[in-house]
Amino acid sequence: MDAQLPDVEAGKRFYGELFGWTFEDWFGPFTRALKDGEPVAALVRKTDGRLPTVWTVYFSTPDARALARRVQAAGGQVVQSPVPAAELGVTALVTDPDGAVFALWQPREHPGFGRRREPGAFAWAELYARDTEAANAFYGDLFHEALFGPEAEPDFGRAPVSDVFPAEMPPHFLVHFAVEDVPAALAEVTRLGGRVQAPPFETSYGTVAVVTDDQGASFALLRR
């Protein structure tokens, strides 16, 4: 996953203090975020101020071009066709039929997360959809093996937009970072200039709070 930010240096300060991340220059405009020396995310400077300030989740696939075609055939859209990211992999940006944006990643030298499901790392992605039945059909077909196969360990769920957000909020993915103490993490977010969008609430996968960073990118804190 990566965050598109107006100010990457400010992002490094915010997430470095919040999650204990360190950073290194990576591919092109991307800065890689590390937790205990292992990759957990990336930050990238927005090249166009009209683009949203957001976190984007990437789904791994052995063939980004084939999956992009399947997305399109199922009613989604290809926003950015698959392109190589040097020797790291192949990436594409797509939407589901409801308009929620996500990315595809065909790994080469960069397989993905070095750490996850632990404090300061990715723990869950929740799709907030307007039509949950349509989402079930679309993603259930697209990622059937990952969601339902014999070795499935999904870190992905879906809920109606209106469960947490105003009904007019566009469908979107919300990335969740694991924390040991949600109230303490909320206090730190506020101290660093972020704000609380939704105070702690209980879900089937843990206690969640929704926040924004000091540049407006939304994400969630999760205690499982």
Structural summary, described in words:
With about 220 residues, the protein is an alpha/beta fold. It has one domain (about 1-224): 2,3-Dihydroxybiphenyl 1,2-Dioxygenase, domain 1 (Roll), CATH 3.10.180.10. The protein contains five helices and 15 strands. It has helices at about 10-20, 65-75, 130-140, 145-150, 180-190; strands at about 1-5, 20-25, 30-35, 40-45, 55, 60, 75-85, 90-95, 100-105, 120-130, 155-160, 170-180, 195-205, 205-210, 220-224. Strand 2 (about 20-25) and strand 3 (about 30-35) form a beta hairpin. It is globular and about 45 Å long. The two termini are about 20 Å apart. The model has no long low-confidence stretch (mean pLDDT about 95).
Number of strands: 15
Proportion of residues in β-strands: 35-45%
- The rounded Rg comes to 17 Å
CATH level-four homologous superfamily name: 2,3-Dihydroxybiphenyl 1,2-Dioxygenase, domain 1
Architecture per CATH nomenclature, i.e. the level-2 architecture: Roll
Classify the secondary structure makeup into a structural class: alpha/beta
Distance N terminus to C terminus? 20 Å
Q: Report the major sheet.
A: 6 strands, mixed
Helix percentage range? 10-25%
The overall pLDDT average reads 95
Strand line-up across the major sheet: 11-10-12-15-14-13
Secondary-structure element sequence? Answer: EHEEEEEHEEEEHHEEHEEE
Number of helices: 5
Number of structural domains: 1
Protein name: VOC family protein
Organism: Streptomyces levis
Pfam families: Glyoxalase
